[in-house]
Amino acid sequence: MSARSSTLLPWLITAVSVAVMCALGYWQLERMVQKQQRLASIAQKQGNGSMSLVAALSHDDPRDIRVEFSGVPNPKHLIYLDNQIHNQRVGFDIVVPVSTNAGWLLVNYGWVPAPDFMRTLPTIQLDNELLAFEGVVSVPGANPLVTETNDDLSQFPALVQQLDFAALSRGLGIQLLPVVIQLTSENPAFARNYQPVVMSPEKHLGYAVQWFGLAIAAAAIGGFAISKKGRSNE
C-alpha cells in the first residue's frame, strides 16, 4: 500500500467524524431556537389569561392556552399512562374522558405513584358529576420509540404507553378531540407539574458547544496523529 493510500482512510474517518459532530452541534442550535420560540409563544398565550374551551380550540395552534370549562368525567373508563416519572419515582398519569360543550376530550388529572414494581394499577376514585376544570391545552405527539403493548382498548381501566387518539376513540366508542387538557389546579390526590418545555434553550446551547468542542478536538488529534504517522513513514 502506498503512503498516500495509507493516510487517505484515516483522513476520511477524521473528516466524517468531524462532520457528524458539527451536524449534531447545528441540530442542537436549531433545537435551542425552537425552544426559544416555543417559550415566547407560551408566554404570549398564557399572558392573556384563561379562555373558554371552545374559544381555545378555535385557534390554529391551541397548545399552551389556559382554559376553564365544565364537563362530566367518565370514571368507568380510566386510562393509566405508564412509565411517568415524578421526583425520581415511577408512576402513572391518570387520564379521563370528559364530555364537554366542545365534545369528548381527554383530561390528565395528574400523576400518582405506582403501588409496587409489578405494574399494579392504583385504585382511583373520581366523581361522575358536572365539574369545573382549569388547565392547559396540550397536543401530545407520538413517540416512535414506544411500541404500544395494549392492543385491546375495549377493556378499562386501560394501561397504555402513549395516548393514541384513534385507538382510544375506537375503544371508547366516541370521537375524541385530538388534545389533552393538563389540569393545573391543586389536588392532594395527584401531582400536577406539567412542563411543556422540559429541556431549556440554555441546555441545548451547552450541548451544541460540547459537540463543536469535540469536533475541534477530533480534527486536531486526528490531524496530528496522521501527520506524525506520515513523517515516520518518510
Protein described:
The chain is of the alpha/beta class and 234 residues long. The chain has two domains: 3-37 and 201-232; 65-183, no CATH class. It has four helices and eight strands, in the order H-E-H-E-E-E-E-E-E-H-E-H. The chain has helices at residues 3-47, 53-57, 165-172, 201-232, and strands at 51-52, 66-73, 79-86, 89-100, 103-113, 131-138, 158-160, 176-183. The chain has a five-stranded mixed barrel. Helix 1 runs antiparallel to helix 4 (201-232).
- What is the SS-derived class? alpha/beta
Structural shape: elongated
Question: Got a strand count?
Answer: 8
Q: What's the number of domains?
A: 2
Residues in β-strands, percent: 25-35%
Strand order of the largest sheet: 2-4-5-8-6
Major beta sheet summary? 5 strands, mixed, barrel
Query: What count of helical segments does DSSP give?
Result: 4
Descriptive keywords:
234 residues, alpha/beta, 2 domains, five-stranded mixed β-barrel
Put the structure in a nutshell:
By secondary structure, this protein is of the alpha/beta class.
Q: Any chance you could write out the topology, listing elements then pairs?
A:
Elements: H1 3-47, E1 51-52, H2 53-57, E2 66-73, E3 79-86, E4 89-100, E5 103-113, E6 131-138, E7 158-160, H3 165-172, E8 176-183, H4 201-232
Parallel strand pairs: 1-2, 3-7, 5-8
Antiparallel strand pairs: 2-4, 2-6, 3-4, 4-5, 6-8
Helix pairs in contact: 1-4
